[in-house]
């Protein structure tokens, strides 16, 4: 996997109430990833970008909701999320620096 692909796989952290509960309960972090990302690519990208050891990766495809608007019906974008399980002693801090 080349260096350009590492920066393209991860779109950013997914911050939500469920993601913070998962992060506190078990050593997991949630990322938004591209639709064509595979588990080995995600694992390698997280390990190289954050210098942590990854135990496992689970992927969830969330379909976008259909919403009614003034101009008819619209659809939100589909999202692909990766639940990354970190090894013992590894931690990713998004707030950083304090």
Task: Give a nutshell description of this structure.
Helix content is 29%, strand content 36%. With 98 residues, it is of the alpha+beta class.
Keywords:
alpha+beta; 4-stranded antiparallel β-sheet; two-stranded antiparallel sheet; globular
Count of strand segments? 6
Please give the share of residues in helix: 25-40%
- What string, H for helix and E for strand, traces the elements in order? HEHEHEEEE
Percentage of β-strand residues: 35-45%
What distance separates the N and C termini?
33 Å
Number of helices: 3
Query: How would you sum up the major sheet?
Result: 4 strands, antiparallel
Structural class: alpha+beta
Low-confidence stretches: none
The spatial strand order of the largest sheet comes to 1-2-6-3
The average pLDDT score comes to 90
How would you sum up the global shape? globular
Computed CA radius of gyration, to the nearest angstrom = 15 Å
């Amino acid at each position: 996997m080349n260096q350009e692909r590492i920066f393209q796989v991860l779109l950013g952290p997914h911050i939500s109430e469920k993601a913070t509960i998962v992060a506190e309960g078990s050593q997991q972090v949630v990322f938004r990833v591209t639709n064509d990302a595979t588990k080995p690519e995600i694992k390698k990208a997280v390990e190289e970008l954050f210098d942590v050891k990854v135990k496992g990766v689970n992927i969830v495809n969330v379909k976008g909701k259909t919403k009614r608007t003034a101009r008819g019906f619209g659809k939100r974008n589909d999202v692909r999320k990766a639940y990354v399980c970190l090894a013992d002693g590894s931690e990713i801090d998004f707030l950083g620096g304090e």
